[in-house]
Description:
Elements (H helix, E strand, L loop, with lengths): L1 E9 L9 E7 L19 E2 L2 H11 L3 E5 L7 H13 L3 E6 L13 E6 L21 E6 L2 H13 L5 E6 L5 H11 L4 E2 L3 H5 L3
Parallel strand pairs: 2-4, 4-5, 5-6, 6-7, 7-8, 8-9
Antiparallel strand pairs: 1-2, 1-3
Helix pairs in contact: 1-2
Pathway: Purine metabolism; 7-cyano-7-deazaguanine biosynthesis
Protein name: 7-carboxy-7-deazaguanine synthase
Family: Belongs to the radical SAM superfamily. 7-carboxy-7-deazaguanine synthase family.
Amino acid sequence: xxxxxxxxxxxxxxxxxxxxxxxxxxxxxxxxxxxxxxxxxxxxxxxxxxxxxxxxxxxxxxxxxxxxxxxxxxxxxxxxxxxxxxxxxxxxxxxxxxxxxxxxxxxxxxxxxxxxxxxxxxxxxxxxxxxxxxxxxxxxxxxxxxxxxxxxxxxxxxxxxxxxxxxxxxxxxxxxxxxxxxxxxxxxxxxxxxxxxxxxxx
Length: 202
């Protein structure tokens, strides 16, 4: 598999926010989101075997893993092999995905954090995957303006989402306005700031 980086940090988003975590960032993405904070992961990287990734993760210690990108599910076969190994060794794994690739074959091994792309991102997610989100998974809307909030509300109203839902303002957006909207519209979602941006970490 082609790996951009493997590192330890705090999880900045989703249901595991604030948890110490080992990140495996894979190279390649099929989207060009306006708010992407890891454009360097679109290309380059290092070719690594599943065994080499396992060795690097073991050296960093910790039992919680986040496989991210780019879009990690573009390397589907390699990710599945890695997930099987992680389960064998007792790791807890989360996959961050942009919602354009089917994740159902990953769910026996990992929880899913699906980032539903809002209009300001300039991209789209596959909303037909939302019914397959389970209570152990989560969904995230990164919002920049009122149109994004209206879109998130519309998606939540017409799609069954059984996992927890988070609304995260883009860095620099008026946090209070987003929080007020969630309260006023009684949205079935949790307000969440991007912790890694606030702390200045990966």
